[in-house]
Amino acid sequence: MAVDPTGEGLKRFLAEDPGGPVVMLNLLRFREGGQKSYARYSKTVGELILGRYDSEVLYYGKGSTALVAEDGQAWDAVLLVRYPSREVFARMVADPDFQAVAHFRSEALSEAVLQATVPLG
Fold first, then answer.
1. Could you write out the three-class secondary structure of the chain?
2. Is 12 part of any domain?
3. Residue 69 falls within a domain, yes or no?
4. Which Pfam families does its entry note (predicted)?
5. Residue of 46, 66, 79, 102 with fewest CB within 10 Å of its CB?
6. What pTM was computed for the model?
């Protein structure tokens, strides 16, 4: 299962940019013991990198009871992060400081969804 954005995905993400801020939806499923690696990634990104890009975590929570989902579709955690623009997100993931810790996220996850959201109305 894919857990990291690809170059093609980032190109499409930027090409489809409606302008303005973007909130990224992260649905996370951890490998056995992956929470520790993800915590290391989160701490570094949260403390050192997001502020540099005027971005913020809006919500981070543990998955709970799935009321509507097929078997195996429940997620371990949900994360919402706001970025000023898609371009800012792309610059952040290319930042050498981000690249230095991104492997902790990759090692932590068995499956993920990383989806841009667009405000309605």
1. CCCCCCHHHHHHHHHCCCCCCEEEEEEEEECCCHHHHHHHHHHHHHHHHCHHHCCEEEEEEECCCCCCCCCCCCCCEEEEEEECCHHHHHHHHHCHHHHHHHHHHHHHEEEEEEEEECCCC
2. yes
3. no
4. DUF1330 (PF07045)
5. 66
6. 0.92
